[in-house]
Amino acid sequence: MNYPVDPKTGASDSLALVICRGTGLCNLDFSDRKVAEEWEDYYLCDHHADELLYKWGDHNNNGFERAHIHRN
């Protein structure tokens, strides 16, 4: 998975940013090849790419940064 990352996030790796925002695992070092290989085959659907990357802080388009989604 390699999506473009908005430079304003301060992140250099889209997968690291998605995992941090989605799961709270913010200490994964993707410069370590073993870590990168462990996560490289995960698929990210368009909805979650929008939620966790592209529209995260976009308050004009109902950004997800402060939203919580609860599933029953």
Rg from alpha-carbon coordinates = 13 Å
Q: Which residues form runs of ≥5 with pLDDT under 50?
A: none
How much beta, percentage-wise? under 5%
Sheet having the most strands: none
N-to-C CA distance: 29 Å
Structural class, by secondary structure, is mainly alpha
- The arrangement of helices and strands along the chain is HHH
Quickly count the domains: 1
Taking all residues together, what is the mean pLDDT?
80
Give the beta-strand count: 0
Figure out the total of helices.
3
- The helicity comes to 25-40%
What best-fitting shape do the alpha-carbon axes yield? Answer: globular
Protein name: DUF3499 family protein
Protein architecture, described:
The protein has three helices and no strands. The protein has 72 residues and is mostly helical. It has one domain (10-61). 11% of the residues are buried. The mean pLDDT is 80.
Q: Brief overview, please?
A:
The protein is mainly α.
Helices and strands in order, then pairings?
Layout lengths: L13 H10 L9 H7 L6 H9 L18
